[in-house]
Amino acid sequence: xxxxxxxxxxxxxxxxxxxxxxxxxxxxxxxxxxxxxxxxxxxxxxxxxxxxxxxxxxxxxxxxxxxxxxxxxxxxxxxxxxxxxxxxxxxxxxxxxxxxxxxxxxxxxxxxxxxxxxxxxxxxxxx
Length: 127
What we know:
With 127 residues, the chain is an alpha+beta fold. It has four helices and five strands, in the order ααβββββαα. The chain has helices spanning 3-9, 16-24, 83-97, 109-126, and strands spanning 28-30, 33-34, 46-51, 54-60, 77-79.
């Protein structure tokens, strides 16, 4: 079975065209090598898929005949993604909350207080 069709069948991607696009962009790798969407997939291969800033690692257990239901996905693949990958995403989420884009206007009262607190902390450390 083609890799793009396999990723669609096991519900990694919502549509097959999204799976094909991910392969073309180099977001799908087998044995750390980027693959074309037409590459055939076999059992016991490890696939790395970069999706939503997470590198998912999947092990192929079996090849489905067609798209499977969400409850049956675990019969065809094993998720071996390390937990650290998900923790990095949490850190990114928190970093984005506190980041202000340049040119968004004057600092708010809260931003001003945070800046003042930061400046006070750095001057106390210098003493």
